[in-house]
Amino acid sequence: MDIVGACRAFVSVSERGSFTLGAAAAQIPQPVASRRIAALERHLGGRLFDRSTRRATLTPFGRDMLPSARRLVQLAEAMEYDAERAKLAPMRLAVPDICATRDLAHLDVDARRQGLRLDLHEAPPARRAELLRSLQVRAAITPVPESEARWSAPLGLASAAEPRARTVYIETLRGGRTDPVRRRVWIQPEDDVPHVRDRLMRVRDTVGLRPGQVTVAASLTSAAAEVLDSADLLLCSPAQAAELDLHWRPIGEIELTRGHDVAAATGDEVERVRTSLGAGIARCLGAAVHAEVTG
Fold first, then answer.
1. Of 178, 157, 128, 120, which Cα lies nearest the Cα of 247?
2. CATH number among 3.40.50.10090, 1.10.3720.10, 1.10.10.10, 3.40.50.2300, domain 3-87
3. DSSP strand E in 128-232: where?
4. What is the pTM of this model?
5. Cα 149 to Cα 295: distance, rounded to the nearest angstrom
6. Which three-class secondary structure state does DSSP give residue 258?
7. Does the keyword Transcription regulation apply (predicted)?
8. Residue ranges per structural domain of the chain
């Protein structure tokens, strides 16, 4: 039985001394109020009202049960109020700071149209992980290897001048002994993760580049500025290259992929972000969406 509904009818009728007025105050038909109170009497094992009079008069048993019924109704109303507040509370989501403001705004709009409010926090990978560990956010978009990625984008090298070749080989950055200018490859913070950085560093060492020719930048902005002002190269996705007016090419020696998935305190939050916001997040990342994730 619906004990909360029955207690609500019981309290309402007792306060007004009438089944008709009590049912109207509880916003239910009078026969429904009568059935609920009768079910509550059967459940509790005693009569709550004296039905020998025209008014709804409480029995001694009914007077004893009324305070508990009131507390239960008040608690149920408080719970309903808390539930409404919880549904209106925004989901704090940590996202990569490489996302364009326009795309994040569209992501927020997509969420609102599905009844979900977002509180977006832009941060580099390490900071996003810390925000999630310290429970300052409910979920975070985190970098993962391609095999575990929900969203992925190819990584290549982008330059200010359009290359003649369709593929850029890192070994061509070696230069000659008399060449004082050695071109560099800049890794932005979003790709400063082992499954990207370490693989690229191994290629650097294999082809004989100097250590400083493949380096991690302090920010995407500083890396882009270096590339725009020189012949250096930026490790980035095609979408980023287009946004920065750079010319993107794949890497000849290695295939690199930037992968992301969502991490959260609960599996329900993970699925909620994946299913409700997946397309919008892919747009923010300039990535493709994978229907299934393997790991």
1. 157
2. 1.10.10.10
3. 139-144, 151-159, 185-187, 214-216
4. 0.69
5. 8
6. strand
7. yes
8. 3-87, 91-146+258-289, 151-257
- DSSP helix/strand/coil, 30: helix
Buried b (16+ CB within 10 A) or exposed e, 111-147: beeeebebebbebbbeebbebbeeeebbbbbbbbebe
Architecture of domain 91-146+258-289: 3-Layer(aba) Sandwich (3.40)
Give the C-alpha separation, 150 to 140, whole Å. 13
Cβ–Cβ < 8 Å for 49, 59: yes
Q: Which of 180, 179, 165, 184 is nearest to 234 (CA)?
A: 184
**C-alpha to C-alpha distances, 180 to 161, 174, 196, 223, 232, nearest whole angstrom:** 20, 11, 28, 21, 14
* Helix pair 60-88, 3-16: axis angle to 10 deg: 120
Query: Which helix or strand (DSSP H or E) is residue 57 part of?
Result: strand 57-58
In this structure, the dihedral spanned by the alpha carbons of residues 200, 202, 205 and 211, taken in order and rounded to 10 degrees, is 50
151-257 CATH choice from 1.10.3300.10, 3.60.21.10, 3.40.190.290, 2.60.40.1610: 3.40.190.290
